[in-house]
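The data layer described in this paper is built around a simple, fixed record for each protein. Such a record has a labelled line for the sequence and another for the backbone structure tokens. For reference, a complete record is included directly beneath this paragraph.
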Amino acid sequence: MSTTRSPRRHVRARRRRIYRIRRAVVACACLLLVLGVTLSARGSLHALNALHEQAAAHTGSGIWSSAMSPYRAPERNASPSPSEQTPTEDERTRKQREEIAALEAPLTDAQRNEIYAKAKQTAQSSGALPTRMTYCIASRGNVGSVDHFANTVYRALNDVRGWPRAGVVFAQGQSGQCDVTITLAEAKELPSFSAGCSEEYSCRVGSDVIINKTRWDGAVRHWFDAGATLAQYRTMVINHEVGHALGHLDNETPCGGNQHSAPLMQEQSMFLKECSPNPWPLDSELWSTFVGAEP
């Protein structure tokens, strides 16, 4: 038997050597890969720990940014902001309360004198002969105190936007010494002044100017629908009814329409037509037939 290897056995031995070499190379590569990953992880962990330590050391100085801070859900306010709160009363109601309070506020002697002085100056520069109308304040029926009513009347009549522009100023007098008596009356009492007076509206009979308490408290619906206030209505009804005592007639000046200001002597409690609510005499209404004492 010969000892020389056959060609086939030689090829097989060579293949086995190559296979063993490949396995060794792959094993070395895997070992190197594992070693590299381990070293990299240790380095990253060390760097991260160093970063946290540095950040913790500077937290109090503000260097720790919000981006590095843990996320926290935003806190919800226990109470809503003012813009989210539902108002207890709308803007229009607040405005009306303020206007009425300003008209009703108590008047000191100094305040009365100041208002009267401005009215007198306006009357003297009006071009008309200045005159003074003295009025008394009264009540009829269940209307309560008339103190607020009296303060409102004084302010409305002597406002420089009103009848002082026609040369007339107004002074409150004592009973029996007045040119006119301005009465705040319960609605059911209106016909007691004259059959021509209605429980629905205010009225003027001779030297009596009667203000309907129901209208005083609530005006009329179309007045509010037109955007006017209760304080403006009260001013209008005083000036309108006293205007009769100065010689004016209802609806003597027609409404101009197109939302122009209504004439003061238009019966605005009944209708506005195409005009806007107006508590003051127009320029065309600045006249008076009343002759009283010198201011």
